[in-house]
Amino acid sequence: MEPSQVAVIGSGLIGRSWAMVFAAGGFKVKLYDVAQQQLTSALENIRKQMKELEESKSLKGALSTEQQLALISTCTDLKAAVEGATFIQECIPENLELKRKIFGQLDLIADDNVILSSSTSCLLPSKLFTGLKHVKQCIVSHPVNPPYFVPLVEIVPHPETDPSTTERTYALMKQIGQSPVKLNREIEGFVLNRLQYAVISEAWRLVGDGVISPTDLDLVMSDGLGMRYAFIGPLETMHLNAEGISNYCERYREGMKLVLNTFGPVPEFSGEIEEKINQAISEKIPVVPEVLGARRNWRDECLTSLAKMKKQM
Ligand code: NAD
């Protein structure tokens, strides 16, 4: 049987990763970009990554590297890229005008069945899709970088998105081994970034107020909270840290409110505190492309090991 086909629009960091995830799931992938050079480097990079994953026995899916590579082709013609696709994942730069333009083009050539999905990190579906003829088929599928190793996908519908679009997107994400979550309505920052910004905001305040050093602050997460959160979320943490949620609230409700009431306004993320944090973190990891690249590779290796371990559990 001919494999189902998807189109990935934009072959940068996220587009490449989506192409690999879909190919691992056995899908035929047409990777589209406005720049031929980007497509050439994307294919080279995907081949290199897959070889490395094969060597470290971390390649996803049931197919071999060569079989997965054979599923991915590139294209600079939008119409040809989406022809025959049942799902289109947009991954172009985070710019509202640019994204509205490409969805406008896709709207003209889409049939009534294909799903038009965006990787946007923070643009609301109502900003992206309002006015499109195929708005019922539009949705945000927000991945986490790097999607190959961090499986979460936030599925965020437009107010006019048909429930069947949400369900089909959810099922597809499950099928390719990602971990989808559904938002019932759109909200600024979706859920992941709202949680992330809450943490960043308090981290900034604690360092700014001189309570803790920047590097120790990061350790609180990487050697403390983060270890737990790789396995259970904050709500299950409450449940397990007492005799259930109600018991946790009974015990800690007042204490939590007392602490939360000492949180201040939204930080400016600039000035002296920015300088202090920048200096400390740059001392540990200088802002030099090779150093940043090596640290990112190390992070991805850690995530690969963690993903493997989670799969075995
Ligand atoms: P990127 O800059 O690495 O890649 C963008 C690609 O889009 C480039 O290859 C560029 O040539 C291409 N492009 C530009 N205009 C185009 C057009 N009109 N048609 C087709 N291709 C076009 O960006 P990225 O980091 O891959 O981000 C892509 C999307 O994914 C953004 O919306 C971003 O917010 C989202 N996202 C990024 C991350 C992340 O950590 N990088 C995480 C989650 C979601």
Features:
313 residues; alpha/beta; Rossmann fold; N-(1-d-carboxylethyl)-l-norvaline Dehydrogenase, domain 2; 2 domains; 8-stranded mixed β-sheet; 13 helices; 8 strands; binds nicotinamide-adenine-dinucleotide
Which ligands are bound? nicotinamide-adenine-dinucleotide
Low-confidence stretches: none
Structural class: alpha/beta
How many structurally independent domains? 2
Give the termini separation: 33 Å
In short:
By secondary structure, the chain is an alpha/beta fold.
Provide structural commentary.
- It contains 13 helices and 8 strands.
- An 8-stranded mixed sheet has the order 3-2-1-4-5-6-7-8, with helices on both faces.
- Helix 1 (13-24) crosses helix 2 and helix 10 (234-240) packs across helix 11.
- It has helices spanning 13-24, 36-55, 65-71, 78-82, 96-109, 125-129, 163-175, 192-208, 214-229, 234-240, 245-260, 271-284, 289-312; strands spanning 5-9, 28-32, 72-75, 87-90, 115-118, 138-143, 152-157, 179-182.
- The chain is globular, with a radius of gyration of 21 Å.
- The chain has 313 residues and is α/β, with parallel strands linked by helices.
- The chain folds into 2 domains: 5-182, Rossmann fold, CATH 3.40.50.720; 193-312, N-(1-d-carboxylethyl)-l-norvaline Dehydrogenase, domain 2, CATH 1.10.1040.
- The structure holds nicotinamide-adenine-dinucleotide.
- Nicotinamide-adenine-dinucleotide is lined by residues 9-15, 32-35, 38, 91-94, 98, 102, 119-121, 142-143, 145.
